[in-house]
């Protein structure tokens, strides 16, 4: 830690801005990244901060705005610019880049480790129904999911390891009639159920593009 603090402030800005940007740009998408991937992405985003510092420093000099050329101002802007870039990357550029590469290479590989990761990381969707079938034959349903949007972890949770957290509204045992789940909400709060990956045989859900 002391070695990092002894680095020049510009180097620290590159590392801090790059790391914050990496967290923002790849939140929930880091499980398959190697150390080389992480360092490369941090330096790419951090490089945006370094370029921003140099450009803004020159601009402030030409405009004779000396007070903006302080290390604190330039350092703050050097962290802010890659962070903004990461937000833009996450919201728009990443998906467009994937579509472009898929079109150019005719390859459906998206770089994620599993189909599950690809499915749960699709953004701007509204989920309506979730059904989890266990290996013992039991089936748990949560419907309508929109009713749980404002509850903790609502309306459901999809773990990167394949686990699921859900508010169960309907239970169907193997080869039996289904029934409404009891005591989902009481005076103590609402009950959420965690289902480990190794107990799950199948997961089905209905979803659609979120209306803008």
Written overview of the protein:
By secondary structure, this protein is an alpha+beta fold. It has helices spanning 2-5, 9-25, 35-62, 71-105, 115-120; strands spanning 125-134, 139-142, 156-158, 164-166, 170-172, 179-180, 185-186, 189-190, 193-195, 200-209. The chain has two domains: 2-105, no CATH class; 124-209, SH3 type barrels (Roll). The strands form three sheets. It has a five-stranded antiparallel β-sheet, with no helix packed on it. It has a three-stranded antiparallel β-sheet with strand order 3-4-9, with no helix packed on it. A hairpin with a 6-residue loop joins strand 5 (170-172) and strand 6. The longest helix has 35 residues, at 71-105. The chain is elongated and about 80 Å long. The mean pLDDT is 88. The chain crosses the membrane at residues 7-26, 38-60, 72-89. Keywords: Membrane, Transmembrane, Transmembrane helix.
């Amino acid at each position: 830690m002391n070695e990092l603090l002894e680095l020049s402030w510009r180097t620290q800005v590159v590392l801090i801005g790059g790391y914050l940007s990496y967290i923002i740009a790849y939140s929930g998408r880091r499980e398959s990244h190697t150390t080389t991937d992480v360092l490369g992405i941090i330096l790419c985003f951090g490089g945006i901060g370094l370029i921003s510092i140099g450009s803004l420093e020159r601009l402030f000099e030409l405009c004779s705005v000396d007070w903006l050329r302080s290390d604190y101002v330039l350092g703050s802007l050097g962290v802010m610019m890659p962070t903004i870039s990461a937000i833009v990357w996450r919201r728009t550029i990443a998906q467009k880049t994937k579509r472009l590469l898929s079109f150019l290479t005719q390859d459906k590989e998206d770089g994620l480790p599993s189909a599950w990761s690809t499915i749960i990381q699709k953004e701007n969707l509204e989920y309506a129904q979730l059904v989890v079938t266990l290996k013992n034959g039991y089936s748990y349903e949560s419907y309508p999911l929109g009713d749980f949007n404002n509850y903790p972890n609502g309306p459901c949770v999809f773990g990167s390891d394949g686990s699921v957290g859900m508010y169960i509204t309907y239970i169907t045992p193997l080869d039996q009639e289904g029934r409404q789940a009891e005591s989902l909400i009481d005076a103590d709060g609402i009950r959420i159920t965690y289902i480990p990956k190794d107990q799950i045989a199948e997961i089905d859900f209905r979803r659609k593009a979120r209306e803008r």
